[in-house]
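Sharing a chain and its predicted structure for anyone who wants a worked example. Both blocks are below, sequence first, tokens second.
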Amino acid sequence: MEVKSISRCGELIEAVIDDIRGVVGSEKLYVAFSGGLDSSVTAVLSKMALGEDKVELVTTRFDFTYPKSVEIIDEFAAKFGLKHTFVDGADWQKRIWRSGPSCNACTRGPKLQSVKDYAHGLVATGAEAEDTWGQCGLKSYNGFYSPLFSLPREDVKRIAKCLGIEPKKIGENSGREGCMLKHLLKMMASPKFHGAAVYKANATLMRLIEESGLIFSIANVKIVGPLSKNIALVNLKPDPGEEFKNNIKETISSIEEIEFVEIVDKPVTLEVMASPGIYNNERSRYWVEKGRLAPDFAAPICVKWKLSKNNRLTTFQVVNYELKNS
């Protein structure tokens, strides 16, 4: 690393450490910890600022948390000598998904509020300048504090490199990763049917990928279709070849809650039913298509929007699809 870059990194680290000390003082700081880049940098800088006895990592655990995510979090806490606690958010998350996919509601609710309910002091988040919270939120508000709030993502990456922080990946996305439930693209009216389908399909995919030794930038199984049946859309990028795809398709087809499996290896049109709030708002439709759906698909998508008459649906659900003919 160049001397100029090291100097800049040192300045960034010192500024954040000074800010944490100024905000937290002699109190204990709880870090809402996901195991990703931002929360990992926040955790280490908090330890540097306050000492390990004044920092506790707290993670909300769901029924749809990837098993590997738990391993990654435990390993990080042990490596950096920080206390870590899991709190439960499973029932709250399920209540949210009854009305349709809503990662934002899950983040604001069970993911962060459950940590705050556990904490006996200020909760630090990994929000930085280029994510939704950093663009629309406040640096310190209602018991939450974001030490990286003013930093662009490249600066956060620079700090991580300087401090030797290399967060491990689950393997479902080379960018931001989440829990399995984000791949259920419809209401979870029945956790034992819809929830089981998305969990079993994605857990199976991750197991087969780990056994193969292959690495993907995108690897997930989207569960779509009407509420009466689960259709599995498998996304793998780069394309692993026919033998691996056939193995995936055959294995996931054996899951009893799944009716049909399709490999998304060509452009796909998604038929999306949306609540009036989304359907009548061009900006909301754009975000769902470009920000929520497209980044997780292995091929380009096109969305056909339809207004839902289901009053229980507060967001959207993908009810059908069509792959483009070669």
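Comments welcome. The mean pLDDT is 94.
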